[in-house]
């Protein structure tokens, strides 16, 4: 399937930019904010409840991101399609960028993909998403506007029946980790929170978006993970948007003083 055949006239664009031109230094990213499937791929052989659960997207981020963008006057660049179509936070050359199995669920529509099939998904979805992020960073650089990259993700309350006690986690690895550590400190100022430092996931060679856009130029960044049961409703998203805005501003002020 050629890349120009994957997305049809009725399919939504693969990337949306919320609050374009926002004045905040924060550039919010949503690698897994959507769970749609292009019409050409049907439903990937999955019932709706599978696409709706955590294997299909980061639950809550599609609602949390715009709220946080408004609270901070930040730009939010978000991806539209399910991570099962293509995971935009993976190197497209990796097998798990288009997984055949996710959390024990077989993905029939990802079985036996040809090289052309994979190229089509990259060209139609991942490349436009990553290009949009790069273009926004370039626009800000040209305007003399600073950028702090903040990638928004969510995680399941339990994995393989093992409870996860953290409400929020901050992921970091290479590049300039100063902001990520300042954000950890800001979250830990609230004694009611159990905060994960590279928990429940660690940022490593598997991650793609932040390393691509933040590491080479040593741009400040953080990847935030919020537990899904806390942002599964609009009320929860609103509450966490307010909490995240406070912590992000505190971390920004902290690094500005150094």
Automatic annotation (TrEMBL):
This is N-formylglutamate amidohydrolase.
């Amino acid at each position: 399937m050629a890349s120009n055949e994957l997305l049809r006239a009725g399919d939504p664009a693969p990337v949306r930019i919320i609050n374009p031109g926002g004045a905040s230094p924060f550039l919010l990213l949503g690698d897994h904010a959507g769970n749609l499937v292009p019409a050409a791929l049907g439903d990937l052989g999955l019932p709706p409840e599978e696409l709706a659960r955590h294997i299909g997207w980061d639950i809550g981020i599609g609602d949390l991101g715009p709220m946080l963008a408004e609270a901070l006057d930040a730009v939010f660049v978000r991806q539209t399609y399910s991570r099962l179509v293509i995971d935009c936070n993976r190197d497209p050359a990796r097998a798990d960028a288009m997984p055949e199995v996710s959390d024990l669920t077989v993905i029939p529509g990802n079985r036996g993909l040809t090289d052309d099939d994979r190229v089509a998904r990259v060209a139609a979805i991942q490349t436009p998403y990553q290009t949009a992020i790069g273009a926004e960073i370039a626009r800000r650089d040209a305007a003399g506007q600073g950028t702090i990259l903040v990638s928004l993700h969510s995680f399941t309350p339990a994995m393989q029946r093992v409870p996860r006690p953290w409400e929020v986690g901050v992921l970091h690895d290479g590049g300039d980790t100063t902001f990520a550590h300042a954000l950890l400190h800001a979250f830990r100022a609230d004694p009611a929170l159990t905060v994960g430092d590279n928990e429940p996931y660690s940022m490593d060679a598997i991650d793609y978006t932040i390393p691509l856009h933040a590491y080479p130029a040593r741009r400040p960044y953080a990847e935030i993970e919020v537990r899904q049961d806390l942002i599964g409703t609009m009320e929860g998203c609103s509450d966490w948007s307010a909490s995240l805005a406070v912590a992000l501003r505190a971390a920004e002020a902290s690094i500005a003083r150094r």
